[in-house]
Amino acid sequence: MQVWHPDLILEERQLRNYFKFDELGTNYRREIIGGLTTFLSMAYILILNPITLSLETVKDLPDALRMDHGAVFVATALAAALGTLLMGLIARYPIALAPGMGLNAFFAYTVILTMGIPWQTALTGVLFSGIIFICLTLTGIREMLINSIPPELKIAVGSGIGLFITFVGFQNAGIIVNDDAVLVGLGNLRDGNVILAVVGIVITVILMTRGVRGGIFFGILITGIIGMMAGVVPKPDGIVGSVPSIAPTFGVAIEPIFNSPAEVFTLQMLVVVLTFLFVDFFDTAGTLVAVAQQAGLMKGDTLPRAGKALFADSAATVAGSILGTSTTTSYVESTAGVAAGARTGFANIVTAILFLLSLFFYPLLGVITSSVTAPALIIVGVLMVSGIGGIDWKRFEIAVPAFFTIVAMPLTYSIATGIGIGFIFYPITMIVKGKAKEIHPIMYFFFVIFVLYFIFIK
């Protein structure tokens, strides 16, 4: 018979109280499954980020322009673990962080290849954007900006992200592919990876329909096992591998400030910093609202502890740049963990630990292919769009910006672009309807910023 020491019972109760388990109706099992599910849904970044930042797919490129693959892998895992842990402990939200897809592509293909800016200086740009974020957060400006967004647009943002990640899931699975004639089309349904993804979708749908707790997580697990048995998913070459050195990238972001200030303080770098800042701000804002809505954590139209959540996100960007990776941001894949049961920051502790463990078990990540994780993204999209009923579609002045926000995200493959289009049309339709006084002054500021963004930066 196990005997609990009184001190342990007290500490366990304090832990439950800190994360508000009883208030949110959760428990350790749900949080652990949620944390595991979130990790599995975003573990792909551990593979894709090093490939992107090292420009592996670009041939005949001088090594000086490439970031070290192993160092970026370690930086990615550490930045994800640190950012996720900060979000979990400070803001107590089940929202994981990692270097963002899209922002890393901008970093590699636009800043380095197109602009010709060295990756060392590009990391400095990420560092600057993170510092600016922290300043905006500490002054309360960033939180005020998010809370000024009307509830209908918040719902639209969450629903739009749902469609976006569903599209990403279909694309990653090969179910939807490029078609030069009509942009996109149906993929090869006889391909093994596509078949595995379809099987995964069916399994996950059955589990979710039956109300199985953690159905998305078990869907990923079962799909992975089936994939290995069928020979579609590669079996791991090993279990434990050596951890690469982070030395090639660690602290490099600081060096250009002192060694080559002429390359840092330029108009071109200002555009780079503003782009990092701009895209990360609205991607993060959209993700925070979407995940909070999915988890039922919103208090009316306000996101509680938004300042703490935004600080964790900002601090993660700064830390990630110093470690040696592009912008670290909140991940919409966290909705998979929420759907599996996560409601508190305790799930983030689980996810962060798994990111740290991934440093030692890198060979095992080979079984987490896009065909395995795609079903989770697709099903989460279904769950996220469910909030669309909260939009009053009979009010045309609301329906237009909400609709444009929703459809523009998957169609432009950009969360920030979808938000921008919706935020431009909202003041227009409200003013024409004679409801200018209902518009928060900050929404006019967003209108101007987005117009300038599309004209001069996009």
Describe the structure.
There is one protein chain. The mean pLDDT is 85. It is globular and about 65 Å long. Helix 3 crosses helix 17, helix 9 (151-173) packs across helix 14 and helix 19 (396-412) runs antiparallel to helix 20 (415-432). It is mainly alpha-helical and 458 residues long. The strands form two sheets. Strands 1-4 form a two-stranded antiparallel ribbon. A two-stranded antiparallel sheet has the order 2-3. The protein has two domains: 17-386, no CATH class; 392-458, no CATH class. 66% of the residues lie in helices and 3% in strands.
Largest sheet: 2 strands, antiparallel
**What is the H/E string?**
HHHHHEHHHHEEHHHHHHEHHHHHH
Mean pLDDT: 85
Q: What would the principal axes of the Cα set say about the shape?
A: globular
Q: What percent of the residues sit in helical stretches (DSSP H or I)?
A: 55-70%
Whole-Å distance between the termini?
65 Å
Question: How many helices?
Answer: 21
